[in-house]
């Protein structure tokens, strides 16, 4: 069953959101409940909700598409249990239009509108934000990425291929001097990109200030040798004041990137950082599984990356293929495609592949994504290479050269010892 669009109220700009819905009542009715709850309505009629007010402010249901029902609820609901026992739980996808005037250029309120109390509604036993879209003139009111892919490539001095990178390992426990020594080895190998682990921000034994002071002279020395500054995404996550101060310290020291744990600094905190920032913002999505791992709840990555694109990050993690995490490869690739896809006139995000990565994933990654606009980060795949860090970096580059040229890794490795050793070592893991 599909319900046609209702006419747009005169002279009202709108944005749209699409959801998967499971409910104890028919989906068309649930869609109307959501539209009312997330705009001018509530659980009963109020005298103040006049026709004129509805024309101005009430959300409207654009489309309802039914899916096969379930016979048990995905999520427990005391509201449903208080009513007569439901024997069927209706499922479908719904699209709802919201008035731009209800929200304005306010990301927290945009989230409250498309992803707020609708998750709490009693009738609802499953709900997932699948996607949303904004008119381009509305989207321009938000910060958006400042650097995106072109600006990142320019600062890193890397064009026409993926940025090959890694994470400082061990993730936690290194002193500032040990961190600087690791960065020295990585830069000597010709690495493009280095990042702190999300767990590392300002520990007592290796404060942010001490790490920055130790690392920047190393980066500058290699920049003089390489003719480009290796990009180091230093983790500045913290309070808003902490992030602003740390960003400014990185900028003053000559650094070219900062990193934030976006879910935990929050969308308003990140937006404030973006409005201040003069460096690319590397968005780490740790905690993302909480929002997406249940298929009947939370967010799709398509919608998630749009929110952070509006807030102004430049790069975002998408997991890796054949990784150590739960996510299937096709989902990872879909996430990367979403980052690269057009959205309301904003710059695309650079997708960051990480987690259990090594040179062997490059051909499949390139075949599925059909793009080199990405970062490919390998921790153990570089630092744990049996011939050392330089060979680890070389093997990653060689894997991508083979992928782009359409040559098998085995054939390409015959005259490339670093790739050959990677194939022998990591295939057995």
Written account of the structure:
The protein is of the alpha/beta class and 429 residues long. It is built from 19 helices and 13 strands. It has an 8-stranded parallel barrel with strand order 5-6-7-8-9-11-12-13, surrounded by 5 helices. Strand 7, helix 9 and strand 8 form a beta-alpha-beta unit. Helix 13 runs parallel beside helix 14. The protein is globular. It starts with 13 loop residues before the first strand and ends with a helix. 48% of the residues are buried. The mean pLDDT is 94.
Concise synopsis of the structure shown:
This protein is α/β, with parallel strands linked by helices.
Q: Please tell me what the overall shape is.
A: globular
Compute the number of helices. 19
Q: Report the sheet-strand fraction.
A: 15-25%
Strand order of the largest sheet: 5-6-7-8-9-11-12-13
Main sheet record: 8 strands, parallel, barrel
Count of β-strands: 13
Gyration radius, rounded:
24 Å
| Residue share in helix | 40-55%
- Structural class assignment: alpha/beta
